[in-house]
């Protein structure tokens, strides 16, 4: 885990030094979606292929992998000795096999049409392209599970540098496949996009497995055995709330796709959604890396006050950074020249970015409040906040569908922003008792 000496007072500089590589790793990961959108937008039928990926393939892949996405946290916290590692590894392999079988069932059988046509209600133009993409994404779930499990092990034993290197390898594989697909000019955009993503996650998983060998043969093997040993009962008591949190969080992806498909300008909204969300995620990523900083440092003398000041600075910085894009000529440059959207879609996306202006600041605040809650080991408030977020978005999307007068993109972004606002407010309320314990600093 991230280590920081408690002998020296916590300063903004020390927080920055710990936060920067984590933010950089998240930022590298966040570059994937803008890069993908920029290439697909330059290939044939960009609206259809962008909508197929952003409206069907990516949401379904995420929701299928939801039960294993928290393996990073579980492995970091629980892989303390060889016996514990073996138990977690068995769980990872069995769960990955089951979820991969589910992915295959959705992508390769008639179940696909029930999910995409009946449940999501996707536009007819994107149904078959999306199915091709979902088939190509078959390695996704197992690769993500294996990678996150091994990354947690490396973080646990002080090898967190490998996480950043792995992210760079993933992005490099993505860009390589995207550029090959772009240069060929013959492959559909959905094939190029999903091939790039699959190559990226597989490459990162292979690197994570190789990088973890040294830890497995060294520090893990020599780590003292736990007493009492980790049992599956203890593991599931720890993991199930985390898995439910990720499942609830990722439900917004297919829920959003289903809602956008039922509102005005459905195809345009689904096509622009991954472009806007991808760019917003690039700004939000720097706030996501702050969560682990708070968890690792909050117990140290004087840390609460310094972390609170850093949070304020981070919120201001991220807001100004996104505003610097949205309110200047940089926005048309990004959407027209880099993302290669048509003039109409570029204007559509630019307006959407105004509606997403508060998302980076809310993400940073959530990392601060959630980090304090995680530090207390009383995590019930986190799935509570996610459930409130999901219900808020569901209600607002339902109202948007019933009204039927506003484009789905705008309704989706307004709902997402307000949902995150309510979620942040709940985390603030639930973190207050924890923060009172640090009020004497």
Topology:
Elements: H1 12-30, H2 32-40, H3 46-65, H4 71-78, H5 82-108, H6 111-120, H7 124-136, H8 140-156, H9 161-184, H10 189-222, H11 232-250, H12 252-260, H13 266-288, H14 290-297, H15 303-326, H16 330-338, H17 343-355, H18 359-375, H19 381-403, H20 408-436
Which key phrases capture this entry?
disordered N terminus, 441 residues, mainly alpha, 2 domains, 0% strand
Concise summary:
By secondary structure, the chain is mostly helical. 80% of the residues lie in helices and 0% in strands.
Average pLDDT, rounded to a whole number, is 88
Shape: globular
| Count of helix runs | 20
Low-pLDDT windows of residues:
1-6
Strand content: under 5%
Termini gap:
25 Å
The computed structural class is: mainly alpha
In total, the number of strands is: 0
| DSSP helix fraction | over 70%
* Cα-based radius of gyration, to the nearest Å: 22 Å
N-to-C series of helices and strands: HHHHHHHHHHHHHHHHHHHH
Tell me the major beta sheet: none
Total separate domains = 2
What would your notes on this structure say?
The chain is an all-alpha fold and 441 residues long. It folds into two domains: 7-16 and 251-441, no CATH class; 41-239, no CATH class. The protein has 20 helices and no strands. Helix 2 (32-40) runs parallel beside helix 9 and helix 5 (82-108) runs antiparallel to helix 8 (140-156). It is globular and about 60 Å long.
């Amino acid at each position: 885990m991230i280590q920081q000496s408690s002998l020296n007072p916590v300063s903004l500089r020390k927080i920055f030094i710990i936060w920067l590589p984590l933010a950089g790793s998240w930022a590298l990961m966040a570059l994937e979606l803008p890069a993908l959108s920029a290439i697909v937008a330059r290939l044939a039928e960009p609206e259809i292929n962008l909508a197929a990926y952003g409206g069907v393939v990516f949401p379904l892949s995420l929701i299928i992998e939801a039960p294993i996405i928290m393996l990073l946290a579980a492995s970091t916290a629980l892989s303390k000795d060889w016996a514990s590692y073996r138990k977690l590894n068995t769980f990872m392999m069995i769960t990955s096999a089951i979820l991969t079988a589910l992915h295959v069932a959705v992508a390769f059988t008639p179940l696909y049409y029930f999910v995409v046509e009946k449940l999501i209600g996707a536009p007819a133009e994107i149904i078959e392209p999306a199915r091709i993409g979902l088939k190509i994404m078959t390695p996704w779930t197992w690769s993500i599970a294996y990678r996150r499990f091994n990354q947690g092990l490396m973080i646990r034993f002080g090898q967190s540098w490998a996480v950043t290197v792995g992210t760079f390898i993933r992005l490099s594989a993505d860009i390589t496949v995207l550029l090959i697909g772009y240069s060929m000019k013959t492959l559909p955009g959905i094939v190029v996009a999903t091939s790039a993503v699959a190559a990226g996650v597989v490459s990162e998983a292979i690197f994570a497995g190789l990088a973890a060998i040294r830890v497995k043969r060294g520090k893990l093997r020599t780590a003292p055995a736990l007493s009492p040993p980790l049992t599956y009962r203890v593991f599931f008591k720890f993991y199930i709330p985390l898995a439910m949190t990720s499942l609830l969080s990722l439900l917004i992806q297919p829920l959003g796709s289903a809602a956008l498909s039922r509102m005005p300008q459905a195809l345009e909204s689904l096509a622009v959604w991954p472009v806007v969300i991808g760019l917003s995620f690039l700004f939000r990523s720097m706030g996501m890396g702050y969560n682990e900083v708070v968890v690792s440092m909050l117990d140290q003398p004087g840390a609460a006050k310094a972390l609170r000041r850093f949070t304020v600075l981070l919120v201001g910085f991220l807001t100004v950074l996104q505003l610097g894009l949205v309110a200047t000529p940089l926005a048309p440059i990004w959407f027209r020249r880099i993302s290669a959207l048509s003039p109409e879609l570029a204007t559509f996306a630019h307006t959407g970015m105004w509606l997403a202006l508060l998302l980076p600041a809310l993400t940073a605040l959530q990392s601060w409040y959630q980090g304090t809650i995680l530090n207390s080991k009383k995590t019930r408030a986190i799935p509570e906040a996610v459930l409130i977020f999901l219900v808020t978005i569901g209600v607002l999307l339902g109202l948007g569908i019933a009204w039927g007068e506003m484009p789905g993109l705008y309704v989706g972004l307004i709902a997402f922003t307000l949902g995150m606002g309510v979620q942040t407010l709940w985390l603030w309320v639930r973190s207050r008792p924890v923060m009172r314990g640090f009020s004497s600093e």
